[in-house]
Amino acid sequence: MCGIAGIIYKDGEHNIGQDMTRMLQSMKHRGPDSTGYALYAKPTEHVVMRYTVANTTTPRDYEFQGRLKRNRAEVESRLARLDAKIVSNEKETDYAFRVTLDYSGDLKQIADQIEDIPDCEVLSLGHSLEIIKDLGDAETVCAQYHLDTFSGTHAIGHVRMATESDVDISGAHPYWAYPFSDIAVVHNGQLTNYFQWRRRLERSGHRFNSECDSEIIAVYLAEKMSEGMSLEDAMRLSLDELDGVFTYLCVTADALGMAKDEMAAKPLVLFEGENMIVMASEEMAIRAIIDHEIDTYDPYEGEVMVWTR
Amino acid sequence: MDAITGENQIVYDARGLVEPDCEVPKISKIDGEKATFDALDLTTRQINLELRWLINEEGVTDVTVQNPGAKHSLAVGLLTRCKITFEGSLGYFGCGIIDGPEVHIKGRVGWSACENMMSGTVVVEGNAGSLTGAAMRGGDLIVKGRLGARSGIDQKGGLILTMGSVGANTGFMMQRGRQVIVGDAGHGLGDSMYDGIIYVGGTVRSLGVDCVPGEWMDSDAEFIDRKFRIYDLGTPPTFQKFVCGKKLHNYDNLEASERKLVL
User: Fold this and answer.
1) Which of A76, A215, B88, B127 could pair covalently with B145 via S-S, beta carbons 3.0-4.6 A apart?
2) Which of residues 50-89 of A touch B (CB under 8 A)?
3) A300 in B contact zone (CB under 8 Å)
4) What pLDDT shows up at residue B1?
């Protein structure tokens, strides 16, 4: 089933970590396996990277703690070799870290170097995007990663009921559009031409960290945008080129968009206020952050909408 | 089929998804045949228990529910003539399988509202999601906003009237009853319909398989005028009428006894 949610403020920064937690927690029944956030803080000159050095399926044997330490040290060593100076380095959990880097080179190089280390995965890389995802419900993940004070302008989130791939961090949404900066996607549905698109994108040099069909949407859109297409045009084209039933949300450094397939088989409820636009698979998620009566509606089949902050 | 008990039930509970058993809250303010209660801090199960207690045991015929909060499955399975007002929105499956109540929703309804409704009236002031009035068998469902996709799928009777537009595949496999759409209709209108009538005031993006324009009759105008008058909807616009082409499914070829079996 899965639940998706998005929010974008037009009047500056708000506590989007708390907003998204409330929205996702209210939809826990749609997906209790994992919860994920793509949060956009005020852009900085530094590169922000979220990465993990083990997955939830990594064996917890006697060597586990040792491997975590060695992997983290190896990440730092490789960053140094790439001339990426670590400005701050925060340990979120035993296996998840957030670093800010003074770096002006190719982001793909960083991602490739780090993911070459066994069990390591880059969750997000960019100047404002931060992807946080883990097993459990929204309140659990929020507490684990201290998201209740995260301030920013826009965000998307996802609660996952695993149907297409494993219950682990790699299978959790949102997906970062490797290797493009600051683009992420959450998705509710199934893509039926997943393997066709995966092969095409792999031939273009992209890597995929999971078996989840949703991962290709982010890369597909980012590639179209890198060829000069606007987010809205890329999303419109996706309605023709991606088969299946889906509703997805895509975020960039300054925009949030939604797309719904021609069958309108997956739900999305939308509220457009003066200073905020909020959307979710269920209205109760919107009402989790708005305490007064509002007018909401379902976008129609084949609709694409994009808002900028 | 596996029963949802034993290990399955334990796993489901462990994920914290099961709404706990509860008692009737009995928090309503009752004044003769009228009652009001605030649903803000109540679960779906508590709200429905309170409604049943008021209507079935306390003799209340007019209930106002404050702060329904778009919760799912509210006011389902009510089989008594009574009046219920929701001062807010409902989530999915609101007012399903009802037989008799007169419901006024001052907000919006989510997917699958009034599914399998047998009789009564439901008036929604806002918009409605997809699958509204699915398999509806009788009664009047009035939506003053717009409707999502596949409204009235498998409709077997009654009226669905919307003052706005509707999404794709409205009236899909409709078998009886009527739909009145003041706005526009999405693609695949009346796809594979068996019978029934769909009136559209605006444009139709495309007709579904075996949905064809129908001959306008005086009784059509009388029906629409009467419903607009009853629900105080103003002057009706000019409508196009669509019916089943009877190429795909044709009940007219069946014997009366056979028709009774399939409808």
Assistant:
1) B127
2) none
3) yes
4) 39
Average pLDDT in chain B: 92
The residue that leads in pLDDT, A167 or A230, is: A230
Is B205 within the bounds of a domain? yes
Predicted complex ipTM = 0.84
Instruction: Tell me the mean pLDDT in the region A276-286.
Output: 96
Same fold, A3-43+128-308 and A44-127: no
Q: What does the pLDDT look like over B199-210, one tens digit per residue? A: 999 999 999 999
Q: Which two tokens stand for residue B96?
A: 């399903």
Non-local (6+) Cβ contacts of B13 within 8 A are none
What predicted TM-score, i.e. pTM, was given to this entire model? 0.90
pLDDT for res A59? 79
Residue in A130, A140, A146, A115 with CA at minimum distance from that of residue A52: A115
What is the chain B residue with the closest CA to A288?
B69
B157-187 pLDDT tens trace = 999 999 999 999 999 999 999 999 999 999 9
Pull the structure tokens for residue B254. Answer: 């069946």
Number of domains in chain B: 1
Residue with tokens 């669509």: B242
**Tokens standing for residue A98:** 């957030």
Q: Is B167 within 8 Å of A283 when comparing Cβ atoms? A: no
Please name the member of A29, A297, A300 whose beta carbon is closest to the beta carbon of B17. Answer: A29
For B92-143, write each residue's pLDDT tens digit.
Answer: 999 999 999 999 999 999 999 999 999 999 999 999 999 999 999 999 999 9
Would you call B247 helix, strand, or coil by DSSP? coil
Domain boundaries of chain A, sorted by first residue: 3-43+128-308, 44-127
| Residue B76 counted as domain residue | no
Distance from CA of B20 to the nearest CA of A (A): 14
- pLDDT reported for residue B2: 46
CA A121 – CA A115 distance, rounded (Å): 5
Show the CA angle centred on residue B92, arms to residues B87 and B94, nearest 5°: 55
Domain that holds residue B180: 127-262
Report the CATH superfamily, name and number, of domain A3-43+128-308: Aminohydrolase, N-terminal nucleophile (Ntn) domain (3.60.20.10)
- What are the structure tokens assigned to B212, written together? 């064809």
**Cα–Cα distances in angstroms (integers) from residue A236 to residues A77, A201, A298, in the given order:** 42, 19, 18
Q: Does domain A44-127 have CATH number 2.30.30.60?
A: no
Rg (CA), chain B: 20
With an 8 Å Cβ cutoff, are B149 and A263 in contact? yes
Q: Are B106 and B124 in contact (CB under 8 A)?
A: no
